[in-house]
Amino acid sequence: MGFKKLMGMVVITSMATLTVTGNKELKATSEDNINIIEKMDRMSDNFSDITSENVQDEVLMEYNNLMESYITEPGKEPDYPDYYAGAYVDSEGTLTVCTTSTAKKIKNKIYDATDSKELKIEKKENSYDELLEVKSFIEEKISSVSNEKGVVGDICAVAIDDKNNVVVVEVRNLDELKQRNLESLFGDSEQIEYKNRDKDIKPVSKSLSAGMSTYYSSDGWRHLYSIGYKAFRLTSSGEYQYGFVTAGHGNSVGCTMKYDGDEIGKITGREFSGSVDASFVQVTNSEYEMTNNIYYTEDVANGGYYLSYLPVGYPVYKVGATTQLTSGEVTYSSITIYYTDNLGTFTDFLDTSLISSGGDSGGLVFAPYDNDFMVVGILDASDDTSSSVCKCGNIEDAMGVYIY
User: What is the pTM for the complete model shown?
Assistant: First the structure.
């Protein structure tokens, strides 16, 4: 299943409801420039009623069933059939599966794979494998010239747009000249769409004064992050370490992490490559205990499972130290991003419309399912209009770090 350890489940069609607390104890400090009541009012506006998203649990189950039907070997990426062209949630909250053929036998294969006939099937020109080949071609080209200046250095992200059936290349301050230069490099193909991005994609954390967050101090600065999800790490020597996951950029193994002035633990594991930008913090201060509570709410994340696959259009939520509680939806189910100033290239992130800011790095990203809130991953990068998420499953595979 796409849900970790989730098998033989009965789907309940009611959505989870996120409850913003009105009585959680919040500590205001001299660094706070927003009144606590104003913060709570702002969060209440963001989360007045997430059930209005009108996305049913069945949609997520259908999508996960579809993805799992394409898994031919455990631990490997899906092996898509030649007719599959992507999937997304439409404005009515219905899963739409895209195909290169709407022949009856193809439809039946999709109905069988999803165990549903309630979804929609939409014909597209390009198969998903064709788009993956185009995406890989672009990424290889970028890699081959990554150390040279020029228009390639302005590329912020490359992803497959399931809904519009194209590969999207997002470019910083895109103009006609830049697009022509990119077309000469990648080819003038209808399978590629160039989009402008006004802001840089960069790691979210900044050297800031501490808020409700975790941070480490260096050279007189506080490097601000957000706590992600409760986890344990199994070391190569067989030791179990307990703590939480946060972002990996800007820190290193051995950093002492703090909360509200107290040392709470150290970074004992870190991965900053491939599909993972994450660090594991072992909590060593016996006065602190990591929980599955979602801060700024009265709700608790499910510590037993995580979501592996989320379709484009599905609702997601984030809690972070700077912008607190925000909502959005999945914009790309898998994206390759290029951090500004060659700080890193990362594959298979989840891209969302979540709003975030400096200090939100590492914050928990979660989604509603089966009257519960499930871990999706941690927030790692953003601009003013979107945020990218490192997936929990990729962190588990690369670091031996597990939610609980």
Answer: 0.77
